[in-house]
User: Fold this.
Amino acid sequence: MSAPPRSPTSTFMRNAALVAAPGTIAFALLYYFGSIYIKAYYTALGVPPEDLGFSIQGVVSNSTSGVFVPVCLLLGGGLVVFLLLGWLGPALAGPERAVLRRKVIAWLLVVGTALVLIGFPAFFTDTVTLFPSGWPRRFLPALAVAAGATLAVFAVHLRLSEEPDVRLRQARRTEQTWLAGGTLLLGLLALSLFYEMALYVADVGRGDAMVHADEGYQGSPFVVVHSRVPLKHNAVGTSFKDHGTKAAPYRYEYRGFRIVAKAPTRFYLISQASRSYAARQLVVLPDDGTAWLEIMAD
Assistant:
């Protein structure tokens, strides 16, 4: 008896679910990496990112600059891996190549497991000295785990795609063990790539903040501060003018600032003369009615 035909509504909902599920995961990843970028960027500038109150759209939009390069590399690397896997399987097919196939599986499994064991401990401790200090120790452990897991997954795939007559002669429990190992390896691969992308996005955020500071915060608007009370700060390159009681209550005027960030209760200002990340002097001005800011285009 044939199944009843699906209604247009149920067909649409089924197709929408197939699209929405991966879309939700992608959106969640963009939000996560965007939050990492924002935290790294503003923390490097001396601004607590928790104070800024970014919207969800703002967080997601900040993820694009950080994830573009690693996503392109992952897509390119994944394409190469699938092409190699597609070539390696048929190249080792056939009973006449069974011995060679077993040797390739063993070598892939041994090398992959070794790379995973070398790189995985560095996820949890800084005492591992197998990698040089600096960026190699920061990035290479996760790459080693990813490469090792990929090679081991190759081995599992080759093992599980053997000729049917060969697989029938093997114990079912052995096949289940290979399946479980392949699942674990795929999890390690996803974990290492996720960890690597998080490190990369954080470094991009810090690097962008340093470049922004060294370029004099180009793009940040100038502000003129009108204050009720004299401001105490150490920022160089700014000017001060007292307009006297005739300009009360905001009699004190400060020029030469740029606004770096605005929180609900604070302004974060920097001198427009600042041209060095190392010598930056951030001025935090409370937004409590003591002063108002006149924002000017760059």
Confidence is low (pLDDT under 50) at residues 6-10, 15-20. The helical segments are 8-45, 56-61, 64-91, 98-119, 135-160, 164-168, 172-214.
